[in-house]
Design goal:
Blueprint: E1 4-10, E2 14-20, E3 26-33, E4 45-46, H1 48-65, E5 73-80, E6 85-89, E7 99-100, H2 108-115, H3 124-127, H4 136-146, H5 150-155, E8 159-163, H6 164-172, E9 182-184, H7 185-188, H8 203-209, E10 218-220, E11 223-228, E12 239-245, H9 246-253, E13 262-266, E14 270-277, E15 288-294, E16 300-308, H10 312-322, H11 331-336, E17 345-347, E18 365-367, H12 375-401, E19 407-411, H13 418-428, E20 431-435, H14 440-452, H15 459-465, E21 468-472, H16 478-495
Parallel strand pairs: 1-5, 5-12, 9-10, 13-19, 19-20
Antiparallel strand pairs: 1-2, 2-3, 4-7, 6-8, 11-12, 13-14, 14-16, 15-16, 17-18, 20-21
Helix pairs in contact: 1-6, 9-14, 10-12, 12-13
């Protein structure tokens, strides 16, 4: 009897395979980081072949640690970094260029060109997104325009595009030997190409971008059998039956299935998703409208999302670029070595500012410095920046929804940082709640896969699995909260209008 489900979590910095039991508890996992490639300022790339090779290896790690085989696995789900674009050759199976990562800003000239006719909200009514470097569509255009021979091959129907879920799915199901070229509605909704109402590729938008429809994967629901794993991995003959973009997967893993429920994920960036049910809500406050999930032939559930580009990546930057800490886990102790931020504010606009500002001209700023400020204050300012950005996004959610949240469910790596979680509650003025299983992204993908094959029966069974681990209540004086927020907003203004045409 197959007693487990495996989730492949293809993230920005690593690929993981996590095996879950029927209670939604972690049985074992495997994880491998992949190289972060920075060819120029503002460019961020990954090697798709490294990602695929790592995927196979982490599946083996997870099975081996639990002493399981493919016969013990009922289904496999995939979750992924959503907007990262892979373009590969239909005849060789090889990428024509590195994956261009969601954080990459090289496509700003393409954004400007497309926005010249109708502005950055030119397609927002259909797709829920502004024109921005963040999304996959402009990355495909860049590859077609800058990689030798790519345009001719695309026009001849020889190139395939996918976000990393599609790349992993295609390879898992056989690649050149009958691999399935598909994606789910949540990932498709992050390309700039999918109509939110029809859940189909919009031919008029594809024509405006000059991207051949033949490149694009088939759009499917988030929970159905897409194909069967081939002999290229240890999951041979296992159904691949769930796909959710990472933030939608985390929302699903938090059992936030219904209208009005929300979660905030603390990863490389921060992503707050507010479930709007079956209604498409267009934001007036800088949020994105996206698909939350669709289970088989069931109704489509939509969401508002606040996307923040740099949060956990700021901690990595302090570790890797400045050497202030030796590991990410050290930042909490360093921040606790001082009682406050010492007047320092860190605006980590390394890739511009995402929600609610959408300012590609912004760059990182560390302000309020005096000789009193030391590395402890900088560490605290970095953690506080994560919470301030989340507060601004939550304010936008409350304004759009008209129903203020009374508590915020949290997950992701930085949700383990108690200092950050307490400050988050303080600066929000609402309760912050962390679940027992913090790996909600992988859990959501596992849930979607398991539902498709009957491993779990319904959403009520999944709701029953959710358990609270820790809760933080606001403790900060309201006047002090207002002072900190006022200074944060002032700091944000110092990061704007930085990039001119002659400044990279």
């Amino acid at each position: 009897m197959a007693d487990y489900v495996i989730a492949i979590d293809q993230g920005t910095t690593s690929t993981r395979a996590i095996i879950f039991d029927k209670a939604g508890s972690i049985v074992s996992n495997g994880q491998l980081e992949h190289e972060q490639i920075f060819p120029r300022a503002g460019w961020v790339e990954h090697d798709p072949m490294e990602i695929w090779n790592n995927t196979r290896e982490v599946i083996g790690q997870a099975l081996s640690k639990a002493n399981l085989t493919r016969h013990d696995i009922a289904a496999a789900g995939i979750t992924n970094q959503r907007e990262t674009a892979v373009v590969w050759d239909r005849t060789t199976g090889l990428p024509v260029y590195n994956a261009i990562v969601w954080q990459d800003t090289r496509t700003q000239p393409i954004v400007d060109r497309l926005a010249a006719d109708g502005g950055v909200e030119r397609f927002k009514k259909q797709v829920g997104l502004p024109l921005a470097t963040y999304f996959s569509g402009t990355k495909i255009v860049w590859i077609l325009e800058n990689v030798e021979g790519a345009r001719a091959k695309a026009d001849a129907g020889e190139l395939m595009f996918g976000t990393t879920d599609s790349w992993v799915l295609w390879n898992l199901t056989g690649g050149l030997e009958g691999g399935v070229h598909a994606t789910d509605v949540t990932n498709a909704s992050r390309t700039l190409f999918m109509d939110l109402e029809t859940l189909q590729w919009d031919d008029d938008i594809l024509a405006a971008f000059d991207v051949p429809r033949s490149m694009l994967p088939e759009i499917r629901s988030s929970s159905e059998v897409y194909g069967i794993a081939s002999g290229q991995s240890l999951l041979r003959e296992t159904p691949i039956s769930g796909i959710l973009g990472d933030q939608q997967a985390a929302t699903f893993g938090q059992a936030a299935f219904d209208q009005g429920e929300a979660k905030n994920t603390y990863g490389t960036g921060n992503f707050l998703i507010f479930n709007t049910g079956t209604e498409i809500v267009h934001s007036k406050n800088g949020l994105l409208t996206t698909v939350g999930y669709k289970l088989g032939d069931g109704e489509t559930h939509y969401a508002l999302e606040g996307s923040i580009a740099v949060t956990g990546a700021l901690v990595q930057w302090l570790r890797d670029n400045l050497g202030i800490i030796g590991s990410a886990s050290e930042i909490e102790a360093l921040a606790l070595s001082v009682k406050d931020n010492g007047g320092a504010y860190f605006v980590p606009a390394f890739s511009g500012l995402f929600a609610p500002y959408w300012r590609a001209d912004a760059r990182g700023a560390l302000v309020g410095l005096t000789r009193f400020v030391n590395k402890g204050h900088i560490a605290r300012a970095a953690l506080e920046a994560i919470a301030y950005q989340s507060r601004e996004v939550l304010d936008a959610v409350n304004a759009d929804s008209g129903v203020p949240l009374t508590e915020l469910k949290v997950d992701g790596g930085a949700a383990a940082n108690d200092l950050l979680m307490q400050f988050q509650a303080d600066i929000l003025g609402v309760s912050v709640v962390r679940p027992v299983v913090a790996e909600t992204t992988a859990l959501g993908a596992a849930y979607a896969a398991g539902l498709a094959v009957g491993f779990w029966n319904d959403l009520d069974e999944l709701r029953a699995n959710w358990q609270e681990d820790a809760r933080w209540e606001p403790q900060l004086d309201v006047a002090e909260r207002d002072r900190l927020l006022r200074n944060w907003k002032k700091a944000v203004t110092k990061s704007l209008d930085w990039v001119d045409e002659d400044v990279l």
